[in-house]
Each structure stands twice: as C-alpha cells, then as structure tokens.
DNA sequence: CTGAAAGCGCTTACAG
DNA sequence: CTGAAAGCGCTTACAG
C-alpha cells in the first residue's frame, strides 16, 4: 500500500506506524525519538525527526495523553470580560503558555453560576491545570477540581478555597499607597468606591486604604457601593454620592473601569469638576487610563510579574502536579499621577 | 477489587469498564447508551445513564475522538485584541459554542506572523473547525488547514483564500451610510481614516464611503492613514491631518477605537473642537462609544446576528465537514447619532 | 540500543 | 437487542 493510499484510509494523518514503516524501524523506536528522556541512539533520533518533518508527522496528542495522563491542556476560566484589564492578560497568558508547550482551552462564564457547568465539561478534557481569571469558584466546583486532582491557580482574584494556588498583586499595599497619596496632598474626606463586595481584590484594597487612613488619624473613608467591577457600576456609585451629607474630596476606586464610570457620572450627571471638586484614583493602569479623555491617576498593576509568576507556577505544576499550594503576592507598581487628582493643601 | 481500589490504580477516573462491571453489562452496551443513534433497549440506556451519573462516569473525549475522528474542539485564533470589540465576541462565541457542545481551544497571536506556528500546534489537536477573529491567515497556514480538511470561518475580517467560510457585516453598505449621513448634514470635505490597509473591513468601508460620495457629486474623501485598528493609530492619523491644505469637516474612521484615538488627538493636540470644527463617525458601537467621555456617533456592528450566523455555520459543519463554502454578509445595524457629529447646513 | 507486546479508554462492525 | 473482538494512535515496561 502506498503512503497516500494509507493516509486515505486512515483519515488524513500520518501515524507512527506510517513513519516506522517508511523508516524500516519499529513503532517503539520512532516513538522514543519524540521523548527527550527516552533511551535511543543519537543518530536514530536524528533520522526519525528529520523524516518526520519531511512527511509531516507529529504525534497525536490524544493518543499520547491516553497513556501519559498528561494533556498539556490548561483550562482558562474567564468571567468578567468587561474589564479591559483581562483581554490582555488572556492573550498574553495564552502565548506565554504556548511557549512552554501548553494549550489553552477557554471557558467563558457570562453569568456567575454558569461557571460550574462549564468547568465540569472542561474537567472532562483532563487539563493539567486550571487558571481562573476574574472569577471565583463555587465550592462544589472547587471540590470537583480537587477530586480530579487538577491544580487550580487563581489569577488576580483569590479564593477562599484551601489547597489552591494564587497569583495576585499586594492589593492592601496598593490601598495604603492610595491613602498616603491623597492624605499627603491635603485630602481629608476620603471615600472608597467598592466593587464586587467579597472579591479579594476589593476587600484588600479597601482594607489597606481604610487602615492607612486610620493610622494617619483621618476619619474612616465613606464607602460608596458600586457592586461590581464595571463602568456602569462606577456610574451608579457616583449617583449614590448624592445622598451623602458631606462630599468626599478624595476618592479611591476599586479599579480603573469603575473609576472611569465614576468620573463620567460625577462630571456629567453631578456637574462636579475632577480634580477641581474632588480627586479620583483608580487601580490597574489599563491602557485607556492614559488616554487624554480619561487621564486617570492610578496604581499600576504589576501584570508582567504576575504573568511571569503564573507561567512559572504552570511549569512547576507541569513537572509535579502535587506541588505545595502557594499564594504569590506581588508588590503593586507605581502610582501614576495624571489629571484626576490635585494638591489641596493650599485650599 | 473494589471500585475505589480500581480508581486508585487507573488514575482517578471512572472508565467504561468500571461502569460495565458495576452494572453487569458489556462495555459495548454501556458505550451505546451514550450515543443517541445507537441501537439499544430504552430501559438499558436509562439504567446506564442513571448509574453513570451516580458514580460520575463520563466518556473520555480523547479516547472517543481517537475513533470517531471528531474532537468537538473548535480552534479560535485571535490577534488584534486591543480592539474592545473582540473580547465580547470571544466570550460570547465561547459560551454559544459550548451550548452546542463544542469546546474552544484558544490561540493568541500577539504579532502577525506568529499565527502560523500557533495554528500548526492547534491543528495537531484536530479541531473540527477553526474560527479566525481579527486576523487573516498566511497562505501557507490556509493550505495546512485545507490539507487537514479543517474548515475555516473568518469572522468579521474576510480572507482572500478561496474555500473558506466568512461571516461579516456588509461593510460597504456601512460606508455608504456614513457618507449619506455626513452629506445630508451639509458636510462637503470628507475624509476616511484608514486602518490596516488591506484588511477587508477597512477596504470595504472605505470603498462604500468613497463610492457614495462620488455618486452624490462630492469630492473624493481624503485618506488619512492610521495603519492599524488601534487607539494609537487613530492618534497618528490626526497628526497626519496637520499636513492637509484644507481641513476636512466630516471624518469617517475605520472603527470605533481608531475614532476615539483620532478624537482625543484632534481635541488635545490639534486644539480643534468636535463636532464644532469637524464631525467624526466610527464603526462598531463598542460599549465605550456611548460613554459620555466619548459620546461617539457610530454605526452599530450587528454582533448578535454575526454570532448567530457563526454558530449556525459551526453546527452545519459539525454535521457535514464538507459543506459548500459560503460568505454570510449581514446588514449593518443603525447609525447611532451621538455628540461627535452635527448639522452644518446652517454654517 | 531496539523490537514485540500489552494496554490507555473508547467505538463499531460482526455475530448471535 | 447484546457481547466479544478488533482497532484508533500512541507509550512503556519487558526481553534481548
């Protein structure tokens, strides 16, 4: 049977068998050529690899994982995609992971609640690793991961579940810096715009902000509830400011997108001036924060370092799925002063 | 051997064998219960499915695809992620595909050029279908898809390659509408801000705009080269306007993100007023277009319909991979008038 | 260092 | 309608 006839019969792919026959070697030998740590003559490996390239053979990953129990698939679970911080993280993570030969299977959760089903299907593909972006897991879902012995990395937002990995910014420190920045510049009536109430990022940023204010003898920051990490939520929080007896002069928002929604509403609907009447600080430094239309003062999220830490973790877990769970907390980047804050000491 | 001991030995998963033994049936029968079109007694199927649910059995998709040659994987290739139009498309596509039981394997191409390698790896996983978002394929890559008989759908941006599927907006019609809108309101010196020069979306929008202007006896629109679909590119195009002898009074931008970059630069760096000195129209109606900070007049991209068409196509191709290639062109949504355009007839 | 054989978890003709 | 057997494309002890 000619090679072409064979390929016709078995679908369109070249298999080990084809390659072995072509080279006059056994299937075992051919297979070994593709495993760096396999015992095989140097010269044999070279011949196999060369010929494989010529006829376009590449091992079928499904057949391989059936035996090795490793799939080189990482499941990426994404929810809150309206935050412009995530698209970049997603794509960069995907290409960085590809660089260490891991493939990303994407799971999108439009509404919270659907994550569970999606995750279950994902788990079917036996990912070597699951990375959760911008979401948390229900404890049922977390348990399924544990049961299938799939390590989970929470990126940015941490989870209460024990036994999982985490990579996050030191959000509390970020909150403290925001407080210092405002207080140093003469702000005295602080407010925090709170996003998703129990997201770790939200809680920690608030805590750092409030604690630092207390340490410096400033009245506790008022909390304006936005409710989620979105533009619309920031908008709503500004409306809520109407009901306050005393207007805050320094506002720290849970993140940039919330800050931008807040800004737009404060200026447009409340008719106030920023930074004239009040200063606003965000968190993340997403690209649009530097656009002149927003020019938002904000704290940079150390994305590069977070990404690097995540990939390093993925690599470790690739070698040893049973590694000890660890939370990596990375210092926030600098506070970037733009045009939504000003010095009030002369007021 | 107890079930638990067996699960210990074979990793952590329950297999057909386990379930068959548990039920006192053959492996074949159990397998048949999971295929709607298999010949099996109604009652048997019910029993199998019920017990499967109890002990958490679900067929291993890898083992299955080894035989069926269908993976239920769709490869999603994404490039230009800075356009906020895409994150939404990506996640919605992912969940819609999940609804028809297809899983998304993500490939990110940061730079053009890397798509080829990424695609090759993807093809290894034998996706039933590849969807290309915001990118084109090199002809080498396109040929690899053909060779492996993997259907390709181009979403939004079309490709010159024959034999592939396409879902796009009727961009030419969109361009015509932009021209009519501006001309009807007294604009006479038109300009087009061109993004990626040979992207089909860019070419078609420009063509429709220019053709309609010609039909209505208006001088051919000046072309301002932005060079890509990004904020920074729009910014550059505004700078390029400095060298023009006559300033345009009506500008149609290749898409919203380019328009926003253009707007910011026109106002900030050129010190011009929009819509006072000139009107600006975008294309897409991304979420931020309605933020008061931009309030961009734009043409809505019919995302819902495009998504629906893509999923329908995916379904068809799932049933019959050899379906006749087709390009679906969907009428653009309405032109939404906001605050970057005004009526100049009284000027 | 290489090859023959068993087996990963499934599906699907083929008998009965 | 059900079961035994072959086989999908690989990897990996086990001999030699």
Automatic annotation (TrEMBL), chains A, B:
**InterPro entries of this UniProt entry?**
HTH_LacI, LacI/GalR-like_sensor, Lambda_DNA-bd_dom_sf, Peripla_BP_I
Entry keywords, A to Z:
DNA-binding, Repressor, Transcription, Transcription regulation
Instruction: Write the lineage as a comma-separated list.
Output: Bacteria, Pseudomonadati, Pseudomonadota, Alphaproteobacteria, Hyphomicrobiales
User: Which parts of the sequence belong to the HTH lacI-type domain?
Assistant: 14-68
Matching PANTHER family: LACI-RELATED TRANSCRIPTIONAL REPRESSOR, RIBOSE OPERON REPRESSOR
The terms under GO molecular function for this entry are: DNA-binding transcription factor activity; transcription cis-regulatory region binding
Identify this protein by name.
LacI family DNA-binding transcriptional regulator
* Positions in coiled-coil regions: none
Keyword RNA-binding among UniProt keywords: no
What the entry lists under CDD domains is as follows:
HTH_LacI, PBP1_LacI-like
């Amino acid at each position: 049977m000619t090679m072409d006839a064979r390929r016709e019969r078995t679908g369109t792919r070249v298999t080990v068998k084809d390659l072995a026959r072509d080279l006059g070697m056994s299937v075992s030998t051919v297979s070994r050529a593709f495993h760096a740590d396999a015992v095989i003559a140097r010269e044999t490996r070279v011949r196999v690899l060369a010929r494989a390239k010529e006829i376009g053979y590449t091992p079928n990953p499904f057949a391989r994982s059936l035996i090795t129990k490793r799939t080189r698939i990482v499941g990426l679970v994404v929810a809150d995609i309206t935050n412009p911080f995530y698209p970049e993280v997603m794509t960069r993570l995907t290409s960085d992971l590809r660089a260490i030969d891991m493939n990303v299977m994407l799971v999108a959760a439009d509404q919270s609640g659907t994550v569970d089903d999606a995750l279950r299907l994902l788990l079917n593909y036996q990912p070597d690793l699951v990375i959760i972006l911008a979401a948390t897991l229900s404890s049922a879902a977390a348990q399924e991961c544990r049961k299938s012995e799939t390590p989970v990395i929470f990126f940015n937002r941490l989870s209460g579940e024990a036994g999982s990995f985490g990579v996050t910014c030191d959000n509390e420190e970020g909150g403290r810096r925001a407080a210092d920045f405002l207080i140093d510049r003469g702000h005295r009536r602080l407010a925090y715009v709170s996003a998703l109430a129990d997201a770790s990022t939200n809680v920690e940023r608030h805590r750092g902000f409030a604690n630092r204010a207390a340490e410096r003898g400033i009245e506790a920051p008022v909390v304006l509830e936005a409710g989620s990490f979105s533009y619309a939520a920031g908008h709503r929080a500004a409306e809520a400011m109407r009901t306050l007896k005393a207007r805050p002069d320094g506002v720290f928002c849970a993140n940039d997108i919330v800050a931008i929604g807040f800004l737009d509403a404060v200026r447009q609907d409340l008719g106030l001036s920023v930074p004239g009447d009040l200063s606003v600080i965000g968190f993340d430094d997403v690209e649009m924060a530097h656009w002149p239309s927003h020019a938002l003062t904000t704290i940079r999220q150390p994305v590069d370092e977070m990404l690097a830490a995540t990939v390093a973790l993925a690599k470790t877990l690739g070698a040893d799925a049973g590694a000890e769970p660890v939370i990596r907390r990375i210092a926030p980047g600098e506070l970037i002063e733009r045009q939504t804050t000003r010095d009030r000491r002369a007021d």
